[in-house]
Amino acid sequence: MFIKFKHAVESTLKSALDTAGYSTDNLYIEESAHSDLASSLSFRLASEYKQSPMIIADTIASKITIPENSLIDRVEVAGAYINFFVSETFLNNTIYEIFKKQGSYGAGHGKGKVIIEHTSANPNGPLHVGHIRNSVIGDTLARILKKVGYEVEVQYYANDMGRQIAIVAWALDRFEFNQQKKTDHAIADVYIQANQELRDNPDLSLQIDNMMQKIELGDEEMVKRFDRATNLAIAGITSTLKRMNIHHDRFVYESRFVKGGDVADFLRELEESGLAETIDGALTVPMPEFDKDLVIRRSNNTSLYVTRDLAYHRWKAERCDRVIDVLGADHKLISSQLCYVLRVCGIKEPEIVIFEFVSLPEGSMSTRAGKFISADDLLDQVNTQALAEVTKRRPKTDEDFRKRISLPVGIGAVRYDIVKISPEKATTFDWESALDFDKLGAPFIQYSHARACSILKKTSGVPDSIDPSVLTGEAEIALVKELARFSHVTNAAASNLKPHIVAIYARKLAESFNQFYRMSPVLSAPDDLLEARIGLVECARIVLASVLDVLGIDAPESM
């Protein structure tokens, strides 16, 4: 409904501008603390028309006509700002729309197919805290894009023939593989041992080089060894992602682009077009925009990760309308180089979401050195803490109930703690903060949903329809306005590829609902307000459940 209100403001303002004799391509409309929407265009027009911004604002406002039953209630000028306020029609229509659409409320009309790639961690060990920031950002973006209306396919690009997986394959034949451990953790053990031995005996690296040449040539025995290593790691990674409510539609293995000839075709086309040249035996793409040119085939005729990545991106571009990659900050340079090559080749470039890494208080994480907090360890710890918190709050409930509730509470706490921060901002992972259930994180939002469910269970049922015009209390109106912003928020998050926008909204919605609960008693409400307030609780429940779903967080009915 908020989007409709914004469109009404845009249309009204454009009409007033024309009548007043002003012209501009940008209306500079934004949300404001002093109104529902405000325009600062008077400041922009002042220099062009050599008039005071205040005079321009007054002139434009005087030409505004608000039709009957408009979503706009009134217009006020404050200094040079033109402020717009929602009408009772807006508030009523918001309630009617939520009642009508139920769980589909807030769905958009995005068109086209999107392929989003996220996580894509090297299969040389378990996911760690840094990896799951990628996973949570990517999964939340996919959910947002689906809510907005796009057809979304989520992919994991598995590096199954790079140097790291060659080391794992080599290690599996050299060190004992612990069959009792989760497979990705057992892979990390042998990978760490292998790297230590390679540091102690540098000449052994020649064996890794030899393996990489064989896999490039399609040596059947080598393919089996690499496949075994990759599959063991991916099996463990997949089970961790499942614990976090994260799903990939397709795992795409980079070796397919070598085996299928895509890489060879791309390299040949680059040579024939003159976009690549051989320097010291290596095929290189000149990079005038960068300090260093890009090698895409080594002098020993083996391809590089970026070479196979180029073929993968061309394959993706041919199958969708938008390509989105979620990548760590260490991929800034290589992703820029990849986009440059795609651009000069006339291939659709990906939209890149770069996230800064999560660091530990004692330093950065490294799988090679064995210094990391695995995602599994994190989830185990947070589940233990969640169980303790649920037990503290509900000591008289049976153990099965407490365990059943603690799982979604724990996962929700991790996901929310990760996604609430804008991707480009670096963070230090803080165990105490992540496990603090008293802050305004996921447990607070989940509890707000559970509170709504609890209220509704104590009534005789949700009415089929209500008269929202009786909801005139400040907290009631504030809650309806917040409910109306849902689709506006998801659209903004989808347009800007900023999932934290939805996380912030979820917290504000929960705060607004709890303020309504404190200020407007429901079960003890007078007869003329009872049904309307029950209906508003139902609306809040619907939107809280929907926004939690968009965040990949369960919405418990009891906590």
What does this protein look like?
The protein is of the alpha/beta class and 559 residues long. Among the domains are: 2-86, 2-Layer Sandwich (Gyrase A, domain 2); 254-360, HUPs (Rossmann fold), CATH 3.40.50.620; 375-550, Orthogonal Bundle (Isoleucyl-tRNA Synthetase, Domain 1), CATH 1.10.730.10. The chain is 54% helix and 11% strand. The protein is built from 21 helices and 14 strands. It has helices spanning 2-20, 41-49, 53-62, 88-101, 129-148, 163-172, 183-200, 205-216, 220-243, 255-259, 262-272, 305-317, 332-344, 375-393, 399-419, 431-434, 442-457, 474-484, 486-496, 500-519, 527-550, and strands spanning 29-30, 37-39, 72-78, 81-86, 113-117, 151-158, 250-253, 277-279, 282-285, 294-297, 322-328, 351-355, 358-359, 427-428. Strands 7-6-5-11-12 form a 5-stranded parallel beta sheet, with helices on both faces. Strands 1-2-4-3 form a 4-stranded antiparallel beta sheet. Strand 1 (29-30) and strand 2 (37-39) form a beta hairpin. Helix 6 packs across helix 9 (220-243) and helix 17 packs across helix 20. The longest helix is centred in the middle third of the chain and has 24 residues, at 220-243. The mean pLDDT is 92.
